[in-house]
Amino acid sequence: MRCVSIIGQKDTGKTTLLLALVGEFRRQGHRVSTIKHAAHPAVTDQQGTDSYRHFHEAMSDQTLLVTPTVRVLSERAPDDQDPRELARRFLTDADVVLVEGYKQAGLPRVEVFRRAVATVPFYQDTDPFASQWIAIITDDTSLRAACPVLRFEDTMWLHLLASMILEKAEVVE
To answer: In which element (H, E) is residue 2 found?
Structure first.
């Protein structure tokens, strides 16, 4: 599988880009999985349901909720796992894993940068990790960088970005 991280400041459109990439990769016939890093607790079940009680009242280490069309695993674990390890453990059938967040994981990355949200991107030419940037996608027509800069106004930017990701994403076995 190929893994890449989608990064950017809050409210720049990381999730919107991830959704568009999932659609593009699926259109191309790839199996796509995602990992979303959150700093806040996730609510995936409703209080009072049996599965909620299994996990929150009985304090099971893991609870697997199985419906006719969806499976949800709740697991007690520290937030110290690398996204590569999570992908190896849970997402083995994927061709592409898009990771939202995990800036510090050292994965190849695509940065979403919007001038209305931040004055400068995370990317800096002098950063020792600058070579990890696959591209920056932006609405800033004046932004220049040593890595490819794609603009939302460009024709076929999504198709081009998907091709770049397939070429430069980290292969995780």
So the answer is: strand 2-8
Model confidence over 4-18: pLDDT tens digits?
999 999 999 999 999
Give me the amino acid identity at 24: E
Residue 41 banded pLDDT, cuts 50, 70, 90: confident
Residues 6+ apart with CB under 8 A from 69: none
C-alpha–C-alpha distance, residues 67 and 48, integer Å = 17
Domain map (residue ranges) of the chain: 2-41+78-171
- What global pTM score does this model have? 0.91
Quickly name the fold that domain 2-41+78-171 has.
Rossmann fold (3.40.50)
Hey, what's the torsion of the CAs at 115, 131, 164, 100, to 10 degrees?
-60
What is the model's pLDDT at position 17? Answer: 97
